[in-house]
Specification:
The structure is a homodimer. Chain A is an alpha/beta fold and about 425 residues long. Chain A has 16 helices and 14 strands. Helix content of chain A is about 45%, strand content about 15%. Chain A has a six-stranded parallel sheet, with helices on both faces. Chain A has a five-stranded parallel sheet with strand order 6-5-4-7-8, sandwiched between helices. The termini of chain A are far apart. At the A-B interface, helix 5, strand 3, helix 10, strand 13 and helix 14 of A face helix 5, strand 3, helix 10, strand 13 and helix 14 of B. Strand 14 of chain A pairs parallel with strand 13 of chain B. Chains A, B: InterPro entries: Ald_DH/histidinol_DH, Histidinol_DH_CS, Histidinol_DH_monofunct, Hstdl_DH.
Amino acid sequence: MKRLVGTNKEISRILYEEQLALSQQQTDVDDLVREILSQVKIRGDEALRAYSQEFDQLAIQDLEVGDSLIEAAFAELDTRVLAALERAQKNIESYHRQQLEQGFEDQPSPGVIRGQLIRPIERVGVYVPGGTAAYPSSVLMNVIPAKIAGVKEIIMITPPQEHFNPAILVAAKLAGVNKIYQVGGAQGIAALAYGTETIPKVDKITGPGNIFVARAKKLVYGLVGIDMIAGPSEIGILADETANPAYLAADLLSQAEHDQLARAILVTNSDQLANQVQEQLEIQLKTLPREAIARRSIEDNGRIIITDSLASMFELMNQIAPEHLEIAMDQAYSYLDLVENAGSVFLGHYTSEPIGDYYAGTNHVLPTTSTSRFSSALGVYDFIKRIQYTQYSQEALAVVADDIRCLAYAEGLAGHARAIEARSQK
Amino acid sequence: MKRLVGTNKEISRILYEEQLALSQQQTDVDDLVREILSQVKIRGDEALRAYSQEFDQLAIQDLEVGDSLIEAAFAELDTRVLAALERAQKNIESYHRQQLEQGFEDQPSPGVIRGQLIRPIERVGVYVPGGTAAYPSSVLMNVIPAKIAGVKEIIMITPPQEHFNPAILVAAKLAGVNKIYQVGGAQGIAALAYGTETIPKVDKITGPGNIFVARAKKLVYGLVGIDMIAGPSEIGILADETANPAYLAADLLSQAEHDQLARAILVTNSDQLANQVQEQLEIQLKTLPREAIARRSIEDNGRIIITDSLASMFELMNQIAPEHLEIAMDQAYSYLDLVENAGSVFLGHYTSEPIGDYYAGTNHVLPTTSTSRFSSALGVYDFIKRIQYTQYSQEALAVVADDIRCLAYAEGLAGHARAIEARSQK
């Protein structure tokens, strides 16, 4: 990993620019994506079948993935994986249930009622990638919060396959997906955004995907809601001399193995620890199955910064605003108050980040590329709407009518004032 | 207003297509907007001054609007407007304070701690249009929720003027804006997104603006957060034979006077009421100061739908998902349970929509163009982040290590498994 030297302000500026460069999305696929969106909008299912033939070399009869395939997946799946998925599901459910919100109502003055209703989004679409990036854990992370929010209908789409990864279908069933359709890419996003004869139009689309999926989501944003446009994954580690360099190296590599664009950043006040982590990285990389990807990530994008104080370490990390933040120090919990920006925080020497990827119950769909400065992990709050309401009695309106008229005329909106005046005359 | 006839499904489809057409944003300004963004990014303040000269024909010395101008605004503002603004502010504060969230923490099993922190966004930028669309009420609606969320620094920008509308500066001061800068258009959004020598980079940008502002916000979205890209304003009214046609016509016109693209929709089970509203519209239009705009809106985009039952009325309105929803019926409150999609609901014969625009305390920044299916009024929740945290003790990790390894290997991510294994060996 490359060492960076400078003031916190300089370093965070450099890291931010580097991060932006890493997350720069190609937009040169946009013309093709627009064409696909428009074809699906016009031709519906027919276009979906044609694109499956063209891109996936598969002739699809039934767009829906039927119950028999799902039953077969349960029969095929390793029972240990099934049991682990079920235990992970329980943890994800118990964590996210705490995010459920209540509405409120008050009566601030006589004859006035105000409040806020909480309503689930009606229909949600979840995109699940095919191939090697088909992660059952991501199915759980996307579907469970929607289910807890009370979403009535959850539609999952995934690229057509000769043989589906059974863990994906099983996770979908466990989490409560209502229908699964086999369609991928930009054409899948189009089907969810516009609806076709077979696939119903949804209100919001979540889930990760390749560049075609990401650009299609960005283009249909506004017509439907989307979760976020995720960039490459990142981990930031704050560690002092109490940290174990072998643990840290393993955690940095667990992030690096995702993608050569993934980024691992270590901030420490211990020069010795920094050196030991570098050594451990080299040792552990040699036997890692995904060594090539992880090495590129660590060498190109890994960064170590040595600072002189804990205060400075936290200041810098808050400026970096990492997706995952590990605090590898004794008494890590006591430092939680210092965290201002991060997607998900892992406290102490034993809370390795993969615990959160799979199991603890916190969500692993997280804001990347410093966007934790203004956004949050996927949660139940992403699947609800808050609806305001107000009621004024005739008498209550009479009390405030002059103020409202005064403000309306001050803004040059006489029609607004007249709506109040209409109710005052008699 | 034009009458629409058909099944609810047909009508909601037609309305949706019409709505989309109305909200179609020009994108032909994008090249210019990109050039402006890039110039401000490179040249900073110098570019801002050059654009002010070019677009506003004003030579700006101080980009900051200083205290002396704000003091002068207080001296100039009609004291009745000031008093009304202060009372509106109190209502907005007391409503939004109810949106403040608490974090949570649980200990689902021995040695495991999980939780969610709530943190305010650090720095927010609010855009306030100049000229006739400079609404002090919008300043309050954007700034107060941010303030209540605990945002440390709120920056307001507004186009340079020979003479500022005093109500804008006063509302900013009342609501707690920290700094005001005079810069408008895409160059203002660029300044907030990238920062300049004078204007600090913010984490999120809110507030309405013209097409240049809207496209610039869309283009910088991801780099910073944004509130929403608002389309033309809409009102949907559900009314039965108990409604007063003069009130309804006045409310429809209060929406229509905003913009010829604004849209007013009446859904009723009373043919007689529909006819009376049409008559009242004609009578009231004749004396409305903004008659030309309102008439275009009502004639081109106003719609009346007659249905045969209350159930059908609510079903259709939920499909329409209006920004503003009035329920002009006796016992309106008892129908609140039937509302699934709407930005803000106004209950009963006396709760005219302008009460919410100015005064009741609910927010008037609302989801337009059917986006209330998946999004909500601007609120305190838009100015906070939720940060997850987890802590596992060594013993707690040992209990779940096999499950996590099993899931990691099932996904082909050995590096993830190894981060767990590193902590099990000893």
